[in-house]
Design brief:
It is found in: Cell membrane. By secondary structure, the protein is mostly helical. It has 13 helices and no strands. The longest helix has about 40 residues, at about 195-235.
């Protein structure tokens, strides 16, 4: 026979549950308010995010120049100009070959459509030309009925392009200032924050910067490997537009999982139109092999120490980000998840009970002295065994 429930313990459990539920509601409320504010200020936040991603990619070169005697402004200017030249060259590598082979590609598409019609006319479908014509007439009528919607979508697309150009220009200027003045940020932030925040926030910011840089650089290396191997396979098969497809593969690698699928689909489609189904199947096999090597060999080696996220977490983050914010959400999903993991790990470290040995031997934490600065950058010198080496923090 079971013992009766204790009234005092039951009431204590209910009070604890109510208190925890109220605290969770407050946390969710503050999270919702923060997201609402970010949505209202997205036109300012998005260029900053893009600038940070670009800065993590270009900072190693700027740091190298600064360590070799270049003034911060000169190093930032040189790296920014070099980045613009590389970006312009990338666009040229995509646009020029596509424009030069556009006629061949159009002929291939027409021939592919004709082959599909001939295949559909035979068994087992037996679709006649009159049925195809009727389908085309129906499609044309639907397009004519949707002219207003098409115009609206076109105007929205034009507005999106204009916003994209403005965001890009603003992000380039911000990248220059981040490269020039970034190492002064953490000392300045330390001086502005009171009490314990002067210790916690700079540490979290430094770890977040390391994680963000690890993500961008690892994605760049993985994208380069994908582009080289897939481009080599396309070149051996004689597929047109090899260089644009390789560049597209590299750029798409910055959107984990989804970008690789998109680039692979485009490569298989171009091969199917130009070389036929046999070569398209070979290209598909090459892409699958390369993606398996990337997912099981390259990416775990490059990202395991930098991000520490499981592949399932990456997939779920990309899916959630894409459903919430489209392409932008897919692009930012993994770094945001990694930054959340950084914050959670730091909070867990602070809330964990230290072992008696660690408590006896750990030195007392003291806020950094603003006067203890590195002479070449004006930054606070990092503590022994903590933070980043001098010149490593933006």
């Amino acid at each position: 026979m079971s013992a009766p429930l204790s009234s005092a313990k039951t009431q204590a459990a209910l009070r604890a549950s109510a208190r925890i539920s109220l605290q969770m509601l407050l946390v969710l409320l503050m999270t919702g308010v923060t997201l609402w504010i970010m949505a209202r200020a997205w036109s300012v936040i998005w260029p900053v995010v893009v600038a940070l991603l670009l800065t993590t990619l270009t900072w190693p070169l700027a740091r190298f120049l600064r360590r070799h005697g270049w003034r911060p402004a000169l190093a930032a200017s040189a790296v920014t100009v070099l980045f613009l030249l590389v970006a312009a060259g990338t666009v040229v590598l995509i646009v020029v070959p596509v424009a030069s082979q556009s006629a061949e590609l159009v002929d291939g598409v027409v021939a592919g459509i004709q082959q599909v019609r001939e295949w559909a006319a035979g068994p087992p479908l037996n679709i006649g030309d009159d049925q195809v014509t009727q389908a085309f007439d129906t499609a044309i009528a639907s397009v004519q009925d949707s002219v207003g919607s098409i115009i609206t979508v076109t105007l929205t697309g034009v507005g999106t392009v204009v916003n994209g150009v403005v965001t890009t220009v603003l992000a380039i200027f911000l990248m220059f200032f981040f490269l020039k003045d970034g190492p002064r940020f953490l000392p300045w932030l330390t001086r502005q924050l009171p009490g314990r925040l002067a210790l916690d926030v700079p540490v979290v910011a430094a770890r977040s910067w390391d994680t963000l840089g690890a993500f961008v650089r690892s994605q760049a290396i993985v994208g380069l490997l994908d582009a080289v191997f897939i481009g080599l396979g396309l070149w051996i098969l004689g597929v047109p537009l090899v260089l644009p497809l390789a560049v597209l593969t590299f750029v798409s690698a910055f959107v984990p999982i989804v970008g690789a699928l998109f680039a692979g689909f485009v490569a298989v489609l171009v091969t199917l139109v130009s070389n036929g189904p046999t070569d398209a199947l070979i290209v598909l096999a090459i892409i699958i092999v390369v993606q398996q090597l990337e997912g099981n060999v390259f990416q775990p080696i490059l990202q395991s120490r930098g991000l520490g996220l499981h592949a399932a977490v990456v997939l779920l983050a990309v899916t959630l980000g894409g459903s919430l914010a489209g392409i932008v959400g897919s692009l930012l999903a993994v770094p945001v998840a990694a930054l959340i993991a950084v914050l959670w790990n730091y909070v867990r470290e602070q809330l964990a009970d230290p072992s008696p040995e660690a408590a006896d031997t750990a030195p007392e934490s003291t806020p950094p002295d603003p006067d203890d600065t590195a002479p070449e950058t004006g930054r606070a010198a990092p503590e022994t065994g903590k933070g980043l080496p001098a010149g490593e923090t933006v």
